[in-house]
Amino acid sequence: MGNYPLPTDKALSGVRVLDMTHVQAGPTSSQLLAWLGADVIKFEAPTGDITRQQLAHVVDGKRQESFYFKMLNANKRSITVNMKSKAGQEVFEQLIRKCDVIMDNFGPGVLTRLGYPDEKLQELNPGLVIASIKGFGSSGPYSDYKAYEPIAQAMGGSMSVTGDPNGPPTISGAFIGDSGTGVHLALGIVAAIYHRTHNGGKGQIVEAAMQDSVMNLCRVKFRDHLRLLGGTAELAEYGPPTLGLTYVPRALNDSGGGHIGNAIPCKPFGPNDYIYMVAQAPVVPVLLKEIGLEPDDERFAPAAARNKNQHEFWKYVSEYTKNYTKQEVTARFNELDIPCGPVLSTEEVVADPHVLHREMWTKIEGHPEGDYYTVGMPVKLSLGEVDKKYPSPGLGEHNEQITKDVCGFSEADFNRLKEAGAYTLPPKK
Ligand SMILES: CC(C)(COP(=O)(O)OP(=O)(O)OC[C@H]1O[C@@H](n2cnc3c(N)ncnc32)[C@H](O)[C@@H]1OP(=O)(O)O)[C@@H](O)C(=O)NCCC(=O)NCCSC(=O)C(=O)O
After folding, report:
1. Residues having CB within 6 Å of any atom of ligand 1
2. Ligand 1, pocket-test mutation among 106, 143, 179, 211, most atoms within 8 A of CB
3. What is its EC number (predicted)?
């Protein structure tokens, strides 16, 4: 993908992002911006984003670039710059002048230690949107702490409310601390760009902290926290009695909404042979009739009785579902307007006709190691996100192109900077 054709007609066309992010939380955010049309320049230390190597797989005895990297860095160009060299700083400063946004998710204080606190960046480019992800933000008692996904899930409340009430706190398979924070950051960046457009080109600092984002994604659990403190006893959903509890317990598969819900086994009873269904109040009489009970059965028809007797209720539903596969139950219940879906394994998700129709499992072509599949763009715009997904870039693949076309340096300058070690680490002594 040597000559990367930038789209000119997409929502973020014309926005240039200096993307200093690494691992998961940042790259997932900048990839969304790239898919919306931004020119995303992945700015890496000469050693590269660590995920290029992490969890890499081997094909025919050859180590491949990891899917971890490939799936989070499509539609980006890559430049390697040694920020600890004078020549590297010259390239960096010129890029700062030419970009609209800088993004990072380094550990606390890294950019300042490299000589670039926010004030210095603003001095170089007053219109710059300076966006960062940290575990805990730039102020407060934890601001010096590094963070990884499960730490954010632990400290944002998520782990304590996930899993079996009789088992340990559990991390979620959805990476809400990393990818979830990335989505929050992307929102902040887009808002700051909008503000800049309407306010004389003034940039600002945008910060998304992983603990904050996890809390936001657990918002309705904090709703339940307030309800418990207020003495609400009718949280019948949460298996054990909740009256008197001062914190929200783990709820296993309870829906957590206004209608009770659960994961119910189906035949042939493999690890993912379940449906998830919600006993939505208006369709309960239909459901009761379908499973062989009276539509006005007083144990289950009134919401309060259903909440109270839900264990018995789910037993009746299971007696029905055990005769069918999850696909059969899903088809029948949806016919009856009962909200219900099969639990799909990753294997089933990526072959699901609806997922394929939505291009949520999509092939990226043109990587030197071969085509690969990735999760698609989850936000669809009527004027379109980028038409084609370009593969993740090789390390430093666009050093020369970016130095000349974006920074505006000449061929002679490029050679001088290269010679002076802008793009590489100094040789080991
Ligand atoms: C993820 C981290 C814990 C990783 O920690 P580290 O590996 O120690 O990296 P740091 O970011 O702290 O430091 C990077 C170091 O690289 C140096 N550095 C960086 N870029 C350059 C360039 N271009 N040139 C020279 N040196 C460089 C920089 O000066 C730092 O050195 P020194 O100045 O000498 O220190 C941390 O980055 C972090 O807390 N980030 C914020 C929270 C976050 O995004 N977490 C999500 C992780 S993803 C995840 O959880 C997951 O994938 O799973």
Report:
1. 23-25, 45, 81-84, 105-107, 110, 113-114, 133-135, 146-149, 178
2. 106
3. 2.8.3.16
ipTM value of the model?
Answer: 0.97
pLDDT greater than 90 at residue 232: no
Q: What's the gap in Å between 73 CA and the centre of ligand 1?
A: 17
Residue 422 has pLDDT above 70, yes or no: yes
Give φ, ψ of 133 to 5 degrees: -110, 130
pLDDT at residue 1, as a whole number: 45
* From 51, 105, 110, mutation site for ligand 1 pocket: most ligand atoms within 8 A of C-beta: 110
Marked catalytic residue, from 19, 39, 104, 178: 178
Going by CA atoms, what residue is nearest to atom 35 of ligand 1? Answer: 110
Residue 116: the pLDDT is 98
pLDDT in tens, 64-114: 999 999 999 999 999 999 999 999 999 999 999 999 999 999 999 999 999
Question: How does pLDDT run across 236-278, given as a tens digit for each residue?
Answer: 566 556 667 889 989 899 887 788 999 999 999 999 999 999 9
Query: For this structure, is 19 an active site residue?
Result: no
Q: Which domains does the chain have, with CATH numbers?
A: 16-217+359-419 (3.40.50.10540), 254-265+274-342 (3.30.1540.10)
At 235, the pLDDT band (50, 70, 90 cuts) reads low
Give, using CA atoms, the residue closest to atom 21 of ligand 1. Answer: 45
Q: Is the pLDDT of residue 153 over 70?
A: yes
Tell me how far the alpha carbon of residue 106 lies from the centroid of ligand 1, in angstroms. 4
Closest residue to atom 18 of ligand 1, CA basis: 45
